Amino acid sequence: MSEEMWDVAIVGYGPVGAALANLLGAGGVRTLVLEREGAAYHLPRAVHFDDEVMRIFQSMGLAEAMLPVTHVSPGTHFVDGRGRLLLDWSRSPDVGPQGWNVSYRFHQPELEAVLRRGVERWPSVTLRSRAEVFALEPGADAVGLRFEDLSNGRIGRVSARYVVGCDGARSLVRRWIGEPMEDLGFHERWLVLDAMLRRPRPDLGDHTVQHCDPNRPATYVRGTGNRRRWEIALRPEDDLTPLAQPEGAWPLLSRWITPEDATIERSAIYTFHSTVARRWREGRLLLAGDSAHQTPPFLGQGMCAGLRDAANLAWKLARVLQGSAPEALLDSYGSERAPHVEGYIREAVRIGGLINTKAMEAVVSSDVLRGGEAARLVPVRPALGPGLSAGWAGPAGRLLSQPRLSDGTLLDDRVGLRFAAVMRPRLAAALPNEMLDRLSARGAVLVADAAPAVGAMLDEAGAEAVLLRPDRHVFGAARDAAEMRVLAEAL
Q1: What is the mean pLDDT of residues 415-431?
Q2: Rounded to an integer, what distance in angstroms lies between the CA atom of residue 406 and that of residue 452?
Q3: For the chain, what percent of residues have pLDDT higher than 70?
Q4: Cβ neighbours of residue 64 under 8 Å, at least 6 residues apart?
Q5: Beta strand pairing status for 419-423 and 31-35?
Q6: Quick one: which of 17, 233, 433, 460 could link to 13 by a disulfide (CB 3.0–4.6 Å)?
Q7: Which residues contact 98 (CB under 8 A, 6 or more apart)?
Q8: What is the pTM of this model?
Q9: What span, in angstroms and rounded, lies between the C-alpha atoms of 358 and 146?
Q10: How far apart are CA 357 and CA 354, in angstroms?
Q11: Which tops the pLDDT comparison, 123 or 380?
Q12: Domain 390-490 bears CATH identifier 3.40.190.10
């Protein structure tokens, strides 16, 4: 097999690898995906994504295709062992500030099918399935990848200027980087049961329910259609052998459903971990998704974090490969993403601790929750870590709301995967043409729109203008024409 050269090789074709392939494909980056399996995994795994992730799908042109395979979630209730509501984390059924609902449920094989069909749009992306990468050969200008074609046992070799490991918790790419995972201290065994209802059970409800019962903590998740999930904590004395089989799990499910109500589609024992890599890049090797971090599932942010990785990394790789940015730009990927994902992991660990009734009572009475008959959880959205900024850096690294423009178009649909200079009309009118021309020449879409939602977004930033990155985080802001000039020069 003759050797080929690619701009980027992605190892792994789960949701993160497929998302990265879509984003790189949209930028015309020559991308090879190497995936060990012949098809996407057919059973449920991840079940939640949020409005920020839907915005990433929007940037790929796939949000409308995702909507039919999702269910809008009303949020989460935390109840004690007797079913009393302790904490209410309900989410509005209305579209939120990001332009989408705050919380979605999905069936992962259906989500992956949408992503994979999306990849087929891009002629610059090639998928090679049944290809198991077993060795990497980093060089000064490229990385060699050796793989076995599992369909015939032949050994192949390709080269790529950059390799991204989207290859999961046992990542080969991470092992070649030599980066151990930092342990954030949470390790628990849980039984995950995916069931299909045989008959209606409206009493189970649409809310996710966290059963904060110290005798047997559990989580109930309403999925799409008739899909329902239970995650049940395991005790040291539990016999795991029968629990790994669907029929052996019925005793633990009996408080909610019986075999007359549902069939168990999948029974799996997981050890939930909380880990994060401190080094996400070594030369031409990079990590994304579970290869760089693992989180307990209590916030539903595992897959979300990996998709944010892809959105952060894709535009940086594209600019470096196009020669419009130095390779050092890639150093900002890990410096921004590692603290951000660690913030979510630590919050998930904290929420996981609320399954103990005494811990819940302490949190309910604390000042981070707002009272009522049941306390209400204040959502956490960590900021990006230190990285890119220019102009006035006050809001740099923040994700602002997505406004709807005067013609009814959502901002991201107008901008696409490009920079956006969003300005109040009065500032735009005062700027010299040469400054506006420079912004346009460097790839920024100029948006000077009088829509109230645009003004509200700029009010969030406390600025007259913001320069948004292709991943929609703030690159920098301007409060006057002088700061706008600095922004234009930085781009």
Answers
A1: 96
A2: 8
A3: 95
A4: none
A5: unpaired
A6: 17
A7: 51, 52, 54, 55, 399, 401, 402
A8: 0.94
A9: 53
A10: 7
A11: 123
A12: no
